[in-house]
């Protein structure tokens, strides 16, 4: 299994709620640079947080890659979600190549859990950072970090 973890691009600092914060112009550019790293990959599914900035990020990636599938929105990808619940959810997935679009601190903790088997070493994920993990299954401590790319700053 190849699991791609993408943190949303830079978002506006304020909105009516945290979930409604949109991407900035710079955030959109960051996402397009990250999406370029996914070009040619055989992605089978894009799954995103329901928060606006993650939805916008996922849609930009979908368009940039001309990905034909729909974006799947799932509630266990929000900033405060429990990475252990994510492992249980990922265990149910059958895709061989999957992109999750989500937030900090969740994304860093999930990566740390997958790589090290615990959450004490979260992977540093700035806006639009893209991590590539690989392993037989998405289980705690059983995946390897293949690449980590941070946003292209403008």
From TrEMBL:
<dbReference type="GO" id="GO:0101006">
    <property type="term" value="F:protein histidine phosphatase activity"/>
</dbReference>
<dbReference type="InterPro" id="IPR013078">
    <property type="entry name" value="His_Pase_superF_clade-1"/>
</dbReference>
<dbReference type="InterPro" id="IPR050275">
    <property type="entry name" value="PGM_Phosphatase"/>
</dbReference>
<dbReference type="GO" id="GO:0070297">
    <property type="term" value="P:regulation of phosphorelay signal transduction system"/>
</dbReference>
<protein>
    <submittedName>
        <fullName>Phosphohistidine phosphatase SixA</fullName>
    </submittedName>
</protein>
<dbReference type="InterPro" id="IPR004449">
    <property type="entry name" value="SixA"/>
</dbReference>
<dbReference type="GO" id="GO:0005737">
    <property type="term" value="C:cytoplasm"/>
</dbReference>
<dbReference type="InterPro" id="IPR029033">
    <property type="entry name" value="His_PPase_superfam"/>
</dbReference>
<dbReference type="Pfam" id="PF00300">
    <property type="entry name" value="His_Phos_1"/>
</dbReference>
